[in-house]
Amino acid sequence: MSERYDFEAIEKKWQRFWEETDQFRTDEGGDRPKFYMLEMLPYPSGALHMGHVRNYSLGDSIARFRKMRGDNVLHPIGWDSFGLPAENAAIKNRIPPRQWTFANIDRMRQQCRRMGWAYDWSREVTTCEPDYYRWNQWFFLQMYHRGLAYKKKGLVNWCRECQTVLANEQVVNGRCWRDDSLVEEKELEQWYWKITDYAQELLDGLDGLEDWPERVKTMQRNWIGRSEGARVRFPVEDHEFELEVFTTRLDTIFGATFMVLAPEHQLVAEWQQEDSRHGRELKAFVEEMRRQSREERIAEGGEKRGVFTGRYARNPYSGERVPIWVANFVLLEYGTGAIMAVPAHDQRDFEFARRYDLPIRVVVASEAVPEGDMDAAVEASGKLVGCGEFTGLTSEEAQRVMGEAAEKQGFGQRTVTYRLRDWGISRQRYWGTPIPMVNCPSCGTVPVPEEQLPVLLPEAEALQLGGSPLGRVPEFVNTECPVCGEAARRETDTMDTFVDSSWYFYRYTDPRNEQQPFDPAVVRYWFPVDLYIGGIEHAVLHLIYMRFFGKVMRDLGLVDHDEPVRELFTQGMVIKDGAKMSKSLGNVVSPDEVVSRYGADSVRLFIQFCAPPDGELDWSRKGLEGCFRFLRRFWRIVLAHVERAGGGGTDESDEARNLRRKLHQTIRKVTADIERVHQNTALAAIMELLNAVSVYHEGDGADRGLLQEALETMALLVSPFAPHFAEEVWERLGKPSGTAALSPWPSFDPELAREEEIQVVVQINGRVRSKFSASPEISGKEMEELALEDEKVQAHTRGKTVRKVIVVPRKLVNIVVR
To answer: What is the pLDDT of residues 657-671, one digit of tens each?
Structure first.
């Protein structure tokens, strides 16, 4: 019993065993139900952090649990290994990005093994390898041939620090999502994928994702942003152009007293070149807007500013002459880049009109419209006033009738628009998937033939910022046109790295396939993913792109499902000193340091026990030490029991019966809690059971057989959380070596797990006045009757009127008296 808990020797022993026996390798088929357990793959930035440890420990505990429950579990890992950090590190340290990336992968792989996570390493995927990114290129070609990939010139989000384009989803409060530098607008020619073709399907599909967090679905609905309304064209005076606007309030169009264009609108670009006062004012205003972020421009309560263009349009319904302005609060990418401004019924327009003394005209009457001057816009619906032939219609009626009129007269149509924009995948980087297109002087832009894939990324010894790095590699750029054979130039942009992470979990199912991205039959076996764990920060980045990719694959005939993930779980952040762990704040805790001091199993226990998995976890050395003490205490009880094995007979005492009941109740609770991803309460139940075992173990005449059963069961219950410890304890208890993780999950007897009695609290007007014991099967009506018959209760209610009786089943009766 003097043997100490040597976690380092124990953990290394079982890690060697798992590696030598390839215990976690998974194959398709068989009679067992499949379970695909997936966590978001890491970026190899140098080392694992505590956010990784939490994510992967949660997933690992579920994968191990499902395997013990008899499922055929797929639990893979890989590396999201293209991207800016490697490129920036290469520039800073003057080393090739590949060298930096693979050194980090080696280190992080070792950390994964040291944590004891049960991955099938035979399925490891590395997205920067040609055997992976050739299929990125193949998917690009399929989209190109289907009209889903196209190139156009337009305004893009440009990060000056990263020297590359960012997708809208990668701009947070006007700043780069990765380095927090200010993002500006820049006009570039870019490749896009038509995710908007799937906008409605992406929106409708959310209704079927019953096991996704409502918060994530709401974020995606808002990002897709479906709006029903009408498009209406306003002819511009002395110009062939018609300004098209989209409005969800067609009923207010007679109240449009001015129009507003985004500073980036094509008419503004034309008019600011004119040598006139208006042209000069426009040019100065546009240059100022380029220095302002989108968020600043559209912020609620922000200053509304603009300039008059000197031009006018005609309202197609009334024929009224409407002045055209340019303002900061209109963005080109939302709608059409032009709005009809109705200041009486839109607060933003109201604020602008008041600032520039523009007319405010009420055209929708409602009780909210004041009789005198307006202090704010009234956005409510009502009956139309001063709207010509449409006067007297309700807002709802007007939407339909006015839409029909626009369609009949040819100046508009009812339609649906989306906030979602096509996915700009071009990046001016080296460390990414080359886009498989060639620019030929004779043939134009042509695709690389599939048989020539992959278009290999050339080796790079040194990189520098500015432009597309591949454009400075002649042996890559200079090629032959695949159509005419003449000299041509390759596309020098690379793909957004979110392309890599949009389908990696399909490749896990068939990672060595050289003929196709994966075998559709294998995907049919494993999909959908049964549980996916990752951060909420990917709700409108990776998770929308992933769903889009799945629908494209379906339309290509590769898969037969509409949604790739059945259940999504978003784990909470790990924080320290009240803030998210980050190098900039200096509050990072190294997993290597705490594992070397307390062991991987203690860290795994702490990271899952000390907070609900979907809540923030406040790092606590005290909490970690508490989990370490739990394992040491468990260890001492096992060794003491082994030394005394064989003593004691069958025990029929109340203490033994209570321990048996506690044992079966714990199995029931731990099973249910892991199934609903409540690892913290599952571990709390195991710790409570250890307390009961400890008390019984120390008593006289303890039943050694009962103790053996309890300790074996506890070893299996703790196995998903502390697998090295569980295997060692299992072996010490005389069980076959290395079989704890392969053993069936413990089952419980419902009768033994049933509470023999429950305690019911009785309150009068919220104050506890009595308690009584009852059967767990007691009904609410019976609880009420027993409470009212209680002598203490009658003493407090005598002479009073019982107004209400509130029953909380199996727990509480509250009697309200007066």
So the answer is: 899 999 999 999 999
- Greatest C-alpha distance within the chain: 106
At 755, give phi and psi (nearest 5°). -65, 135
Instruction: Name the DSSP class of 570.
Output: E
Alpha carbon distance 574, 578 (integer Å): 10
Q: Is the dihedral of CA 513, 515, 517, 518 positive or negative?
A: negative
Answering whether pTM is above 0.85, one says: yes
Residue 457 C-alpha from the chain's centroid: 30
**Cα 292 from Cα 295, distance rounded (Å):** 8
Token pair of 571 as six digits:
């784990």
Distance CA 300, CA 293 (A): 14
Q: Write the secondary structure of 596-624 as one string of H (helix), E (strand) and C (coil).
A: HHHCHHHHHHHHHHCCCCCCCEECCHHHH
153-201 confidence digits (pLDDT tens) = 877 788 877 777 776 657 777 788 767 888 877 778 899 999 999 999 9
DSSP characters over 423-457: EE-EE--SSSPBP-EEEETTTEEEEPPGGG---PP
Rg (CA), the chain: 33
- Order of strands across the sheet that contains 617-618: 579-580, 574-576, 617-618
Burial of 567 by CB count in 10 Å (0-12 exposed, 13-18 middle, 19+ buried)?
A: middle
* CB of 332 closer than 8 Å to CB of 339: no
The rounded distance, in Å, linking the Cα atoms of 439 and 783 is: 81
Q: Are 270 and 240 a contacting pair, CB within 8 Å? A: no
Residue 84 confidence (pLDDT) above 60: yes
- How many helices (H) and strands (E) the chain has is answered by 26, 34
Q: Which residues make Cβ contacts (< 8 Å) with residue 446, sequence separation at least 6?
A: 437, 438, 440, 481, 482, 483
Please tell me the distance from the alpha carbon of residue 265 to that of residue 760, in angstroms, as a whole number.
Answer: 70
Tens digit of each residue's pLDDT (9 = 90 or more) over 458-516: 987 666 655 678 988 999 999 999 999 999 999 999 999 999 999 999 999 999 999 99
